[in-house]
Write a structure and sequence with these properties.
By secondary structure, the protein is an alpha+beta fold. It folds into four domains: about 90 residues, Rossmann fold; about 80 residues, 2-Layer Sandwich (Dna Ligase, domain 1), CATH 3.30.1490; about 120 residues, ATP-grasp fold, B domain (D-amino Acid Aminotransferase, Chain A, domain 1); about 80 residues, ATP-grasp fold, B domain (D-amino Acid Aminotransferase, Chain A, domain 1), CATH 3.30.470. The chain contains 13 helices and 19 strands. The longest helix is centred in the middle third of the chain and has 18 residues. The radius of gyration is 22 Å and the shape is globular.
């Protein structure tokens, strides 16, 4: 096999393997046993199954795969695979994002310390090891402030501390999460350290970008709709409806951040608050955004960031010369159900057939249970739709969601 046309993909969804094959690449796949199926076998040149999040397992697997198939690059587009691929890049001297750079993205406390060393402004932050640290942070920086795990995703475990009376329950919450783990992500994201961060008031946006040998191109700025708590995401829309000067400030804050982080190549998803003192980066990820943001970008701009991620290491995609112009707008909204046992579902197929719909994720049937809304994982479905402009795309989502009825009764 030709290393110049062979890619190692670690973890992730089948669609990433399919997109690599469409570019003519041979694929070597390291995947969890339970996430590998017959469809993978028809596409890959070779596969090794094991827990790629454990370096003691991944190191010999990657070395053996490289000796057998001689891949020239390695990528992952799933959060648990980002640091492991960085280790593989270092071990086999493949280039690409190193573990050191990747880990700055996956460890929020490390990110804050690194940015401070680089002189890039950000919210006040501190590591939390005990209740006294919570009290000290509140005394130093005031209330409210945010407490969150250092290395978990999907807004899991994020708490807004509004006053001293919350310190005891928040510390109890931290200790409970350390005992019980990150829900269904416990295997990939063990809950360990926590950090406190200054609360940033203002609307939140995400920035979808791709970096080409150190040159950062912002493809889209995305609006975010959240629950009143500010953490559970209810939807996204792009392009964001911002004044040009404000949007440019968001773009500049993002590219300055990525340069300071040391990232040179690949996709990024950066979350920003638009505060009274300007745009401030909350956190970022060296991967494509979740919540079907890639499908929204593709629908609005004609750019598939997944394909760029697997094709760029071999220069099989053209470098974007500048920010692209949107062809249309796209939006997504999530279905939120009333807790209980599903008794009936109506309207799903009619909505799926609507010409404005890009995707509808919904698979609940009578007998399934709808949980109370505690985090992103408790949403029951997702709709992506397009429109002539961003307001029209959002209106299409809301109209179509209103046509889906999920009836629930008391939980069994």
């Amino acid at each position: 096999m030709n290393p110049d046309r062979t890619l190692l993909i670690v973890g992730g969804k089948l669609k990433i393997v399919q997109k690599a094959r469409r570019l003519g690449l041979d694929v070597v796949h390291i995947q969890l046993k339970e996430q590998y199926g017959p469809a993978h076998g028809e596409l890959v040149a070779g596969a090794l199954l094991g827990d790629y999040t454990d370096w003691r397992v991944l190191r010999p697997l990657a070395a053996a795969a490289h000796e057998a198939w001689g891949f020239g690059a390695a990528v992952s587009l799933t959060e648990p695979g980002l640091d492991p691929v960085g280790r593989v890049n270092d071990l086999l001297e493949l280039g690409g994002t190193s573990y050191e750079v990747s880990h700055r993205f996956t460890d929020k406390w490390l990110m804050r310390r690194h940015l401070a060393e680089q002189g890039l402004p950000g919210p006040a932050a501190a590591r939390i090891t005990g209740r006294a640290d919570l009290a000290a942070f509140g005394a130093a920086h005031g209330y409210p402030f945010i407490v969150k795990p250092v290395a978990v995703t999907a807004s899991f475990g994020v708490v807004k501390v509004t006053g001293e009376e919350q310190l005891d329950p928040v510390w109890a919450h931290i200790e409970d999460l350390r005992r019980t783990g990150a829900n269904q992500w416990a295997r990939f994201f063990p809950v360990g350290d926590f950090i406190a961060e200054e609360f940033l008031d203002g609307p939140e946006y995400s920035v979808e970008g791709f970096s080409f040998a150190g040159r950062h191109v912002v493809v889209a700025v995305t609006e975010k709709a959240v629950l009143d708590t500010g953490f559970v995401e209810l939807g996204h829309a792009l392009p964001a409806r911002l004044e040009p000067a404000v949007e440019q400030a968001v773009v500049t804050a993002t590219t300055d951040f990525l340069t300071a982080m040391g990232l040179t190549d690949g996709p990024t998803h950066t979350e920003i608050k638009l505060t009274g003192r300007g745009p401030v980066v909350i956190e970022s990820h060296n991967r494509v955004g979740g919540d079907r943001i890639n499908e929204m970008v593709h629908a609005a701009y004609g750019i598939d960031l997944d394909t760029y991620a697997v094709g760029w290491p071999f220069r099989l995609v053209d470098e974007l010369p500048d920010r692209p112009e949107p062809l249309r707008s796209a939006a997504t909204r999530f279905l939120i159900g009333r807790p209980g046992t599903v008794t009936a579902v109506h309207g799903v197929e009619d909505v799926r057939a609507d010409p404005a719909v890009v995707a509808l994720d919904f698979d609940l049937v009578p007998g399934d249970v709808v949980n109370p809304l505690r985090g992103n994982w408790d949403r029951i479905g997702q709709l992506v739709a397009t429109g002539g402009d961003t307001s029209a795309a959002i209106a299409a989502c809301e109209r179509l969601l209103g046509a889906i009825d999920v009836a629930t009764g008391p939980e069994a």
